[in-house]
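pinned: reference chain
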Amino acid sequence: MTKEESRELVALAVSALEEKKAEHIEVIEIDDISPLADYFVIANGTNQSQTEAMVEAVEEKAGRAGIFPDHVEGHRNANWTLLDFRGVVIHIFDEEARAFYDLTRIWKDGKQLDPENFLKKEDPET
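pinned: its structure tokens
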């Protein structure tokens, strides 16, 4: 996946998460510090039904664009679902699991980007 394709996927994911009222959406650019991906997208819901809807919305929106995860961890009845699209890894948590794993702290060396910039079609790097 090219960096531009990764950016487009982040925009789709952020849009899908916003539609499902996700809380605290974060985009962390990690390509300079890790070969795992270009970006992490992290969000949480307030209950299991919401987090499941968030996962489904991301998968559906990406699928309509012809983009499918290479790997999914967690999913049904889980407090953390990971969608690995290679260039973009999306983490969807419930509130408790997000606080426990604290990926924002773990990946603090990554570059925090404003998720809204991906929706506005602006350069997300600014």
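why pinned: Strands lie at 23-29, 39-45, 71-73, 80-84, 88-94, 111-113. The longest helix spans residues 3-19.
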